[in-house]
Amino acid sequence: MAKRLRDTGQGARGTEKRQLANLLNSRLAASASLWGWLLGYTLGVWALLRASFRFGGRTWYGMEVFRQLDTYLHAPTSFSLASLVAILLGGVQTALLATLHNRFNFPLHPAGFVVSGSWSMNLFWVSLFVAWLLKASLIRWGGLALHRQAMPFFMGLVIGDYLMGSFWSLWGCWQKRPAYNFLP
Fold first, then answer.
1. Cα-Cα-Cα-Cα dihedral of 126, 130, 131, 137, to 10°?
2. Which of 23-27, 63-67, 143-147, 160-164 has the highest mean pLDDT?
3. CA spacing 20 to 30 A to 131: which of 7, 70, 95, 159?
4. Residues whose CB falls within 8 Å of the CB of residue 180, separated by 6 or more in sequence, listed in order
């Protein structure tokens, strides 16, 4: 009996081998994700700079950050206690929301609080509301099992949007005319 368990990979040593294999697989996946992110980021920056220099870049891409940096370097302001208090208060509110969300299943996500003050909410609030409404409806009337069954469908919608956007953007570059725009 012990020989059969040992040969089939079951038992104490088989469990250790499976745990080691799972650890190596998770490390490999983490390493591949990191390298993929670095490669994607590097190629994205290179493509943006190349297109900007070759075709004339849009002046508003990332300019807020550089304008703010220019202001900090050339016209520095003195210490502001009100700014420090606002930053600390926002951090405390985000930490509180994260704690409530993770420990007590509070419905508001801390990422929503952080993103709500950005310009992108003007563009995405309707789609985020529809996504929340669908998710809440699925969980309320179908339970967690239906939510998990529907997840691949919704992930497919997101991935499909990115793939089609990429395809039409590349097609527009090839045809030398504007095509699909991710952001209106």
1. 160
2. 143-147
3. 95
4. 164, 165, 168, 169, 172
